[in-house]
Write a structure and sequence with these properties.
about 280 residues, alpha/beta, two-stranded parallel sheet, binds guanosine-5'-triphosphate, binds magnesium ion
Length: about 280
């Protein structure tokens, strides 16, 4: 008989403002996690279980931390049911107030850092980010590299199923960000990325100004200014098939405005260090 492996459940960071609750799986994982993907969700019940299955299938060292904002469609209950029946690698942070993509990401990173997993990443739940691309991203995380951006805009990367207008919007937004902030990345708007834990530990999460999707760029500015080397690895981004987008014109315009605020706050980056 193999000796029983007893692993302690992970503890939770306190989030007094959002009345968040953290759920470990009932059966702790027997193998330690080497990568934890944060998945922010709002009304993703149609997508979440299939996505988790595909990530878990990559290997026993992969785990997910779903950060749900009390979705009315029952996404969190689905994740909890899933935890009970299948997965020792599925964690849930349920935020009850203060809904928002930015703060959900911040809380997710704080919780993930407390879990001490060596590599922590994030991805969307809507099927736009294929778990199969994650294996390549992890592979390109060589020793001298601090993180990997899943990129639609490097050779081999592309967007599928999107209108020409939407594809042009991605490019225009990235051009704007490069010009204003001087970042060396082609796809600074990609929400599919992985980082070494040490990089994330340097971020003062509670001081970030973003409350929406611009948290993606704010993190990159801080990491780049810190002198860490990030590379881009190609991904095939697919348009959301099920569920509704939370992106709207107000969010988009606000994101453009906030990039200017980042420039004031963090300056225009002049460093060009990047690892090919
Ligand atoms: N926890 C949490 N997650 C959110 C919130 N808003 C969006 N999300 C999640 O963030 C991810 C990205 O949101 P999307 O609605 O796909 O936005 P988008 O990818 O910018 O827009 P599309 O191009 O239309 O897909 C998805 O996994 C959403 O479920 C929120 O308020 N709280
Ligand atoms: Mg999306």
């Amino acid at each position: 008989m193999s000796p029983e492996v007893v692993r302690k459940p992970f503890s939770m960071v306190s989030f007094p403002e959002t009345e968040a609750e953290f759920f470990n799986p009932p059966v702790p994982s027997e193998s330690p996690l080497s990568l934890l993907m944060i998945i922010p969700t709002y009304n993703e019940s149609e997508n979440i279980a299939g996505l988790i299955d595909r990530i878990i299938a990559l290997g026993p060292e992969f785990g997910v931390l779903v950060v749900d904002d009390h979705s009315p469609d029952g996404t969190a209950e689905l994740v909890r049911r899933y935890q009970a029946t299948h997965a020792a690698h599925v964690y849930l942070l349920l935020r009850r107030t203060n809904r928002g993509r930015g703060q959900a990401g911040i809380d997710g990173y704080l919780q993930a850092l407390c879990m001490k997993v060596p590599v922590i990443g994030e991805m969307d739940a809507d099927g736009s980010h294929a778990p199969e691309d994650l294996a390549r991203m992890v592979h390109s995380l060589r020793e001298e590299v601090s993180g990997v951006i899943g990129s639609r805009l490097v050779p081999g990367g592309r967007e599928e199923g999107r209108s020409l207008a939407r594809v042009l919007l991605t490019r225009a937004a990235n051009l704007y960000i490069r010009l204003i902030l001087g970042l060396p990345y082609r796809d600074a708007t990609s929400g599919y990325r992985i980082f070494r834990r040490e990089v994330l530990e340097t971020i003062r999460w509670n001081d970030l100004v973003s409350r929406g999707p611009s948290i993606l760029q704010e993190m990159l500015v801080i990491i780049h200014r810190g002198g860490w080397s990030l590379i881009e690895s190609p991904i095939v981004f697919r348009e959301r098939v099920l569920g509704a987008s939370t992106l709207n014109h107000r969010i988009l315009l606000n994101s453009l405005r906030i990039i200017l605020e980042f420039r004031k706050r963090y300056g225009r980056n002049r460093r060009t260090r990047s690892v090919a």
